[in-house]
Fold each of these.
Amino acid sequence: MARPARNKAERITAGVMIFSATCQACHQADGKGIPSAFPPLLASDYLNADPKRAVTAITKGLSGKITVNGKDYDGVMPQQNLSDEQVANVVTYVLNNFGNKGGEFTPAQVATLRK
């Protein structure tokens, strides 16, 4: 296993690889998602309003109707089998890309939200 990220920049760099391997198939490389199927991460009002939602969706899964950027989605995102470090890295990457407003999560914060 790679050494843990020591700062936000390292977390973002590590997050790119996790996003490509785990998230990109549904949310697409450009973060636009797939209309009527998978919500966008691109300038996501849903995530920017409460970034903890990203952590919870990854660690616990998400089902039921949500509204993202004015469009409704009613699908299922299964819980992902990622470590707290991996979740922190990928969420930090998403928050700092795709036109989102930035931010950072640490593995300790993810562990707290996972409980």
Amino acid sequence: MIEEVKPARDAHSPTPGKPGVDPKGEHGLGTEDGDATEIEGELDTLRAHGELVSTAAERDEYLALAQRTQADFENYRKRVARDAALAQDRGVAKLAKELLPALDNLDRAIEAAEAEDPLLAGVRLVRSELSAALARVGVEAFAPLGLPFDPNQHEAMAQQPVGGAVSGTVAEVYQNGYRRGDTIIRPARVLVAA
């Protein structure tokens, strides 16, 4: 029996009869539909990857913008709260400044009244209510008798030698001072020992 010898195939030549292979392909470069689909799929993947990168960059940009906006809003909220508190403090101080002369006049009326005067109880009551209202908003009186003179808190009306008083201290308080927290609404008017 004689065996039939088949011609040797080139590694680059297409395989005849193999499904999906174009036997007419030139130089064995694979012009089959499967290869073209595969290349298109890879191009679509690359395009999709580029879109993902673009979308991720856009997302990061919007996230940074949202974070800046949130920080700006938080700073704005704090600034408005601080400004509102300062405005309230200024309003209370202004009102207290306007009421202090009336309080001083009530004190003078109480000092000048005779003990049997029937109006004295009413004047004391009005003075007490006015002082309580100022205290509720944080305004307090201070009388620095015996303390060292402080030009930030006291107004020197006179300076003279006073027996038994240390030089530079408050020897007499002519008019109480008033403050709200650390803010001096009205300095105490005092006599300073020389």
